[in-house]
Amino acid sequence: MSAFKHLKFTTKRSIEALIFLAIFFAFFGVLAHFMTLPHMLNTFMQTAYHLLLETVFYIMAICVLMGAISKLLAEFGVVRLMENILRPLMKPLYNLPGVAALGAVMTFLSDNPAIITLSKDHNFSQYFKKYQLASLTNFGTAFGMGLVVLAFMTGLGYGKGALVGIVGAVIGSIISTRLMQRSTLKAYPELDAPVYDGDLNHDSEQNISFKSEGSIFMRFLNSILDGGKDGVSIGVAIIPGVLVISTIVMMLTFGPADATVGYQGLAYEGVPVIAWLADKINFVFEWLFGFTSSELIAFPLTSLGAVGAAMGLVPRFSSMGLITNDTIAVFTAMGMCWSGYLSTHTAMLDSLGYRQLIPKAIGAHTIAGLCAGISAHWLWVLLSLIF
Prior knowledge:
Blueprint: H1 2-35, H2 37-75, H3 78-94, H4 100-109, H5 114-119, H6 122-125, H7 130-141, H8 146-155, H9 159-187, H10 216-237, H11 239-251, H12 273-280, H13 282-289, H14 298-303, H15 307-311, H16 314-319, H17 325-338, H18 341-352, H19 358-386
């Protein structure tokens, strides 16, 4: 029996390998057919190299600076102040306990996994019911890397659009969290129960804080150094996504640098498959998101896997004259809301012990990201009419 199982497993893996090789060679074979193999390989490496020098290091610098600022905000009580201000909004908007505001602030200042660290803290999770705790995956993801995205877009000169985009992301976060809670309770009504039985220890709420030791100068110095190190970690973490995902997306979005000359093996060249497909229904994207160019759909598509990789596309779009504040509002809203949820939701829910809810979380967040982008676009249109 064991020999039969081993043979079955080996056969399955062999079939999987053959399918992968067929897709792999078909993908790069098509690119090589249009670009020629030498030009394709050169473009692949040149694009990754230019992204590393021109985009990744820029984003990493922002991550280091924002990491230091985030740590300072936490060390000197600003995070606690922001949490107290936002606390009354949690129940009416998100159907979450007031302490959830801390999760929104922390993920905005850092990245999605910050919500998991909080969720595993008894002092934090004791205020939640089980279905609410599971919905924190959607809630926290909608704010992930928000400060970095805001700083990046503002640094490119589109601060107004980025601020409108944050409002769109908030709308998306409400939709995602509520949809997740509703679908969870419908399928698993038994999760409408406290995470922990017994009375709440309200005094412990103040324990969800950040220890402060030493003189003000040392606290300041340690904060910027520790926060900067955290920023370096985030910056390093986005390198694979930007170099691999963004390179492939760009090679499927843009055509030759000079159509009259043809392919030259330069950076950012490629076969515009995504643009070609988007052109077929571009009227939909133009009405929903205000996209005037089919290439722009590459940003939200890339945000599904990693918002850092999606940001790598923006400088190229800007150099081509495709970017407006309206576009940045949509990019910010969808980039923040989706924030690479396809690559994080599975691990986050699994770590919380709710693996069975992964499809519901992904479905709710997909809808919410689209709503975030639509909301940001039409909010920008409305503000443009008023002002």
